[in-house]
Amino acid sequence: GFLVLRDIMEIYGMVTGKAGKSGYGSASTAEDVTHSIDAKHLTAIITGGTSGIGLEAARVLGMRGAHVIIASRNPKAANDSKEMILQMYPNARIDCLQLDLSSIKSVRSFIHQFLALNVPLNILINNAGVMFCPFQLSEDEIESQFATNHIGKISSSLFLYNKTTLCMTQIKSYLWYVICELVILWLNIF
User: Fold this and answer.
1) Which of 30, 45, 85, 154 is the most buried (most CB within 10 A)?
2) Domains of the chain
3) From which domain of life does this come (predicted)?
């Protein structure tokens, strides 16, 4: 009865732009949500930061002063995104590192490049992914969509989690962490 109706009304409010308990709703922009944030002391890695939500996250975090690292399999697209953000916000701190999540070799290379920057990791936005691609094996002989959307994200997240000081809630469940560790051991990735 009542609980269901309340939930329906809350969802309707979200869809129509009504602010929720946080003070923000579907009509809120990224600028609205981050208006009081000074991110100059933060470093963010954004996978898939060359289009869509990833690019918007890179733009807004760059605008707020964060050191943004766009991790992309396409260096040209990453540099184009960087240039676009710098045109809007000349003082933005944007770096681009190549990362193809379907390749364990690329994940390892990315991790080494990131660690060489000697910066903390405060925000990790795992935005990159593929969908509806034809069946194909990655260079590691893993189905490419599974390799990109799961193995690459899990291995890069866990390796970053283990090797850097994180101030985030990237891995929320200990059970999930253990499962991911077992997958990595099984694949003998690191």
Assistant:
1) 45
2) 1-29 (no CATH), 37-187 (3.40.50.720)
3) Eukaryota
Whole-number Å distance between alpha carbons of 38 and 75: 28
- Residue recorded with tokens 């253990």: 178
- pLDDT digit string (tens) for 20-74? 777 887 788 888 989 899 999 999 999 999 999 999 999 999 999 999 999 999 9
CB 110 within 8 A of CB 97: yes
- Measured between alpha carbons, how far is 132 from 2 in angstroms, rounded to an integer? 40
CA distance 28 to 18: 9
Q: What is the Cα 24 distance to its own chain's centre?
A: 21
Query: Terminal CA-to-CA distance of the chain, rounded, Å?
Result: 52
Distance in angstroms (rounded) separating the CA atoms of residues 106 and 85? 25
User: What's the pTM?
Assistant: 0.79
Tell me if 118 sits within 8 A of 164, measured CB to CB. Answer: no
The span from the CA of 188 to the CA of 165, in Å, is 24
96, 75 contact by CB (below 8 A) = yes
